[in-house]
Recover the amino acids of this structure.
């Protein structure tokens, strides 16, 4: 029987690589994205097992109906909470609204989607939830205070969910990507040579990761390969988080 996955923010970058990996392994994958054209094109590129779902996850009230609609067709086996936004700003320039916007997207929506998916998984012999964290929760990085707070919250939620949901056969784990080569990161680092040198000199393996490195880690957590693993955070970072 074909398994079913949901990947939020799966139309580009790490989410796209993850959705592709799941589909390539015969898992029907619903890709949730805000931008219709981008999301539909991503699904066309990935193939027939990729299903576009156009939705803005900031609409918390609409999430229960969204997940119920997907679950009506297929029980949900895998959820990858990948969607998130960042904001680079000096600490003193961050407004209450700025902070709230990041937390709303990166924490509230992850909670709401997870809650609704768990309703379904609980009735269908369990499943696997994989959250995506960041190096900002492993050590301090300047100018990303709201993002850092949001990703630290994700790691705490991962552990709390793992303990509470284990009795339902639901595993919850987290992947913490290091500096990965995507269009967005390449642009940011190429425009800031000092930051790029700092990133590479701090990474023992001396290079940026590939999106497929994250997809492989998510796939491990999503499948029975990790059937006795829950509540863990896996840095996939070339040693960056322990580098000196």
């Amino acid at each position: 029987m074909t398994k079913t996955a949901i990947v939020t923010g799966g139309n580009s970058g790490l989410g796209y690589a993850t959705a592709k990996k799941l589909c390539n392994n015969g898992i029907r994958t619903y890709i949730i994205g805000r931008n219709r054209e981008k999301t539909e094109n991503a699904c066309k590129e990935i193939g027939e097992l990729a299903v576009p779902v156009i939705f803005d996850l900031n609409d918390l009230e609409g999430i229960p109906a969204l997940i119920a609609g997907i679950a009506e067709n297929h029980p949900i086996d895998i959820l990858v909470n990948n969607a998130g936004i960042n904001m680079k700003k000096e600490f003193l320039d961050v407004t209450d609204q700025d902070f709230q916007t990041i937390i709303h997207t990166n924490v509230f929506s992850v909670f709401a989607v997870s809650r609704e998916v768990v309703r379904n998984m609980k009735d269908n012999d369990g499943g696997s939830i994989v959250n995506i964290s960041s190096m900002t929760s492993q050590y301090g990085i300047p100018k990303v205070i709201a993002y850092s707070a949001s990703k630290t919250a994700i790691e705490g939620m991962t552990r709390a969910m793992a303990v509470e949901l284990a009795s339902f056969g639901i595993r919850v784990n987290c992947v913490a990507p290091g500096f990965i080569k995507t269009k967005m990161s390449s642009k940011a680092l190429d425009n800031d040579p000092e930051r790029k040198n700092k990133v590479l000199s701090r990474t023992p393996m001396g290079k940026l990761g590939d999106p497929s490195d994250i997809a492989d880690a998510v796939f491990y957590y999503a499948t029975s390969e990790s059937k006795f693993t829950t509540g863990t955070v896996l840095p996939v970072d070339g040693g960056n988080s322990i580098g000196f």
About this structure: The mean pLDDT is 96. The chain has one domain: 4-180+210-237. DSSP finds eight helices and seven strands in the chain.
